[in-house]
Amino acid sequence: MTAPAPVAPSLTLKRRIKAPPEKVFAAWTQPELMRQWFAPAHAATLQAECDLRIGGRYRVLMHTEDDGRDHEASGVYREIVPHERLVFTWTWLNRPEEGETLVTLHFRSDGGHTLFTLTHERFASAQLRDEHSDGWSGALDKLAQLAEA
């Protein structure tokens, strides 16, 4: 009997954001908005690019204060349902050994608010998952501040 393949670590983060799904979705898909929040708590977004179409690419360049380094993420859009769902690959260009992962975002309207879920999967290790959980948590706090303003 063959042993089942190991399941790659994944993470899921949920937020209730005091803004409609259209506004939260726009923050993920408009470069001028992405530049205002798309980085962990201890980092700044230097550049953001977005070609919002199936097969289109995005790119985000961040600068972290703790180590003074730039970190660049890029990927390809796999699924786009405006204001409801966004699926894209995620690769760190300066850390290719981590491989390609997959991010799925869900946006659900809730009385003028958005019930938002981020699922990031296919991590090579639990340690990488945990590092991304910390990074995404800080970034989502920034996203909520932007969307709620």
Give a written overview of the molecule:
The protein has three helices and seven strands, in the order E-H-H-E-E-E-E-E-E-H. The chain is α+β, with helices and mostly antiparallel strands and 149 residues long. It has helices spanning 21-29, 31-34, 126-148, and strands spanning 11-17, 43-50, 57-64, 70-81, 85-92, 101-110, 113-121. 24% of the residues lie in helices and 42% in strands. It is globular.
Keywords for this entry:
149 residues; 24% helix; alpha+beta; 7-stranded antiparallel beta sheet; 3 helices; single chain; 42% strand
How is the secondary structure organized here?
Elements lengths: L10 E7 L3 H9 L1 H4 L8 E8 L6 E8 L5 E12 L3 E8 L8 E10 L2 E9 L4 H23 L1
Antiparallel strand pairs: 1-7, 2-3, 3-4, 4-5, 5-6, 6-7
The residue ranges in which pLDDT falls below 50 over 5 or more consecutive positions are none
- Helix/strand-derived class? alpha+beta
> Between the first and last Cα atoms, what is the distance in angstroms?
57 Å
Residues in helices, as a percent range? 10-25%
H and E order: EHHEEEEEEH
Query: Which whole number gives the mean pLDDT?
Result: 95
**How many H/I helices?**
3
In one word, what is the shape? globular
The largest pleated sheet is described as: 7 strands, antiparallel
Strand runs, count: 7
Strand content: 35-45%
Side by side, the strands of the main sheet go 1-7-6-5-4-3-2
